[in-house]
Amino acid sequence: MAPDVLFTAEQIQERVRAMARLIASAPLRPNVAMPILVGGFVFAADLVRALAWEGVAMEVEMIWLRSYGDKRVASAISMIAGPSEQIAGRHVLVIDGVLDAGRTIAKAVSLIQAAGAASVQVAVMLDKQRGDAVAKADYVGFPIGDDFVIGYGMDDAGRYRGLPYIGKMPS
Predict the structure, then answer these.
(1) Total structural domains within the chain
(2) How far apart are CA 83 and CA 149, in angstroms?
(3) pLDDT digits (tens, 9 = 90+) for 47-98
């Protein structure tokens, strides 16, 4: 079965450019982008380039956390690669594909704060808007419901990451 399209590639790119303008005009501009691997890498690449067009040149440092593995239900979060001491005193923008329960983002923010970042902001392409989420995003591409999403860097047990759009599998 083919995924149902939630947001087209064109809608995504338009929203990424709008988010870059918001971040660039904010009083506190981040100077380090920290995508959460693996789900945030496609969005991060687009956002970092869009920010450069807006005059915000950022260093990029990855953080690699895993919470899903090959399942659709989050499990314990494991750190594969964490922040370096290079972010001490810096303003960090955490970038991820989707904010669900918020556990992965909360873990990333905690690790980055512990490494001495001066500030941490969060940008996500999708926010499931859960009332029980343990983290929040400062910048959101699209609010969505509780659908399991794929494409644009997000996967289903390793599949569909390369889709240029965001979709959901039919019920």
Answers:
(1) 1
(2) 27
(3) 999 999 999 999 888 886 666 544 444 555 554 555 667 888 999 999 999 9
Give the list of residues 6+ apart from residue 73 with CB closer than 8 angstroms, or none.
Answer: none
Q: Domain of 22: which CATH number?
A: 3.40.50.2020
Tell me the percentage of the chain whose pLDDT exceeds 70.
Answer: 87
User: Which pair of tokens denotes residue 133?
Assistant: 């989420």
DSSP 49: H
Give the range of the structural domain holding residue 66, as residue numbers without chain letter.
Answer: 4-168
Is 4 catalytic? The answer is no
Strands 149-150 and 166-168, by their bridges, are antiparallel
Q: Tell me how far apart the alpha carbons of residues 46 and 68 are, in angstroms, rounded to a whole number.
A: 24
Give whole-number Cα distances, 95 to 1, 61, 63, 89, 159, in Å. Answer: 30, 11, 10, 19, 21
* Number of Cα atoms under 13 Å in the Cβ half of residue 104: 27
Phi, psi at 106, each rounded to 5°: -60, -40
Distance CA 78, CA 96 (A): 16
Task: Please choose, from the candidates 6, 12, 26, the residue with its C-alpha nearest in 3D space to the C-alpha of residue 122.
Answer: 26
Among 96, 100, 155, 156, the one annotated catalytic: 100
